[in-house]
Design goal:
7-stranded mixed sheet; 7 helices; globular
Length: 288
Amino acid sequence: MRIDFLPDKVKEAIELCDMSEFYEIRFRVGYPIILKSFGRNFYLGERGKTILRESAYICTENDIEEVIENATERSIYAYNEEIRQGFITVAGGIRIGLCGNCVYEEDKLVTIKDFTSLNIRIPHEVKGCSSKICEWLFSEKPFSTLIVSPPAKGKTTILKDIARKLNIKYKSSLLIIDERGEFSDVNGENIDKICYSDKLFAFNYALRSMAPEIVITDELCGERDWECAENAVNCGVKIFASMHGDDIRSLYNNKFFKRGVFERYIAINALENSGIKFKIYNEELKEL
């Protein structure tokens, strides 16, 4: 994992930790730096992870400024489009979420400045984490599939693993719409990628020019994202996507959800080093 964008004291402490245990590093000005694991949270201190708050490093404004300067290679204006969307992505697919003061001009958000919090998402390659899912779903042909889970339960990790398997199994033209650069380590002879674009442009551009047979995209959010997925399916494209939700019942509370777009649904309960806990549902939302 690339960590050279972190302040020296944090890098040295991180090197004492087994980062396979953690999925986030949280910086908040004036408060301890926190490591979030799959089971519990720890503080970060001189000797690595600790449960003792008094041993933790306290995040300063300088710490956050240093992270952002390093992550943007001291050219923050070159990254403003990402910053305006609330994140920066560094090599290896590490995404840094940003909080601070939003700056508007004529009711249009132009940037974020005076940062107060960072959420550094740690990507994990859990090899084979989608194997059981693929056994259920893709024995003969791929089904358009939506993954539903709460945040930080491994949706992107699973989509990345599915992409690698589809690249090998079906030899179909596979397009990854990578809005945040989190799929940078997913490549293959059948894979094309559109990076740092919103879904509307990427779907329209891709369907016209790249003729994908399969599209993978993360996190369907608003009405426009759902319409993009529906339009692609109506053009004969298979879609693999994800959405935030506690369980499969979240679909009923999503006003943009429409039956007929996806053929299978996967509800993720937990991502572990040994694999994932999940349930699979058909197009009628009946458990398989």
